[in-house]
Design goal:
Blueprint: E1 2-6, H1 12-22, E2 28-35, E3 38-46, E4 62-63, H2 67-81, H3 108-112, H4 127-131, H5 134-142, H6 159-172, H7 176-185, E5 192-194, E6 208-209, H8 215-221, H9 242-246, E7 254-256, H10 258-269, H11 278-285, E8 289-293, E9 298-302, E10 307-308, E11 322-325, E12 331-335, E13 340-346, E14 348-349, H12 358-370
Parallel strand pairs: 6-14
Antiparallel strand pairs: 1-3, 2-3, 2-13, 4-7, 5-7, 8-9, 10-11, 11-12, 12-13
Amino acid sequence: MLEGTVDPKFKKLKDAFAGNFADGLERGASFALMVDGKIVADLWGGHTDKAQTKPWRNDTLVNVWSCTKGIMAIAVAMEVERGRLHYNRPVAEVWPEFAAQGKDKLTLDLLLSHQGGLNGLSVPMDEAGLYAWTPYVDALAAMAPLWEPGSRCVYHALTYGHLAGEPLRRVSGKMPGAYVNENIAGPLDASFYIGLPQAQDHRAAEIVEGPKASDWVDAVLASPYPHACANPTPIATAPNTRSWRAAEIPGGNGHTNAFSLASIYGNLVGGNSRLLSLEGLENAIAMRFDGMDSGFQSETTFSAGFRLRDPHYAHRASPKTFGHSGWGGALGFADPEAKIGFAYVTNYLLGFDDGIDPRRKRMIDAVYDLI
């Protein structure tokens, strides 16, 4: 059973959302759309558990994986606008230990656009080290790049969050979770947690691994750039543990719902509580890389942390559209021309050989058919 609200003009979005369940592509999910500062659709349905006994609710949260990267890109952009971080200056200026092994000139721009040569750790690291923050960032600071920074793009699956989060912590004095809560989610009355408090644990949906969901991990491990999925190797059901939820892993463990994610993106391009000035946003979304991801062997485009020209929305959205997808189905983005914030989140991870998730594509097509 689907629940929620939708503006009469956008009622077909409910039909599209229902189609994902009718086609057997969903277990539990939520979808939201903000247009020019107003939420016009806030829908949810299905179940939060694998056994399908607990209904998805309006306040259900789910791990959105790499959608977290987009929120970190916003956080960094806010500190750039405040003059405490600089995209084109060495990270070692604010994180002196990072200068080790020839990284003294490595800029924040290169790290955020996955060109930093630090797509994984070169030393063994277990989950406990990842969850504890300091062992992981210390290892990143101490290591030499795995390849020449700036020479290529290789997706920094887990390291991105710490490479963005530690400079943020150094200049703000706050861990990523606290920063996002105080500067992004809190002011918008949204729920976005990097490090889910135990008191909110009852709201978290159980992640269900579906067909082909982990194929990309196996492909990366078999590629010339296996470090992105090693030390430690990502596990699809890790978010079902309290240790994962409690940790701050800003490359992949943000917990949110569609209403909150759409509100955050919507307020970047059309809301009344802009998180960034127009100039600050333009700086953040300016292209930093356009070409081949050497790890995935696929075309990719990055700004300072945001994906541009994502294959899900590139065929419908305006050229300056920016956002980030997440493992298995989640997606959040903003279209500055249409002034929309879009969000789709799910607990049912799926993989598709062509990389195009029909659930997300159906909702994007439905949106752009109506606006």
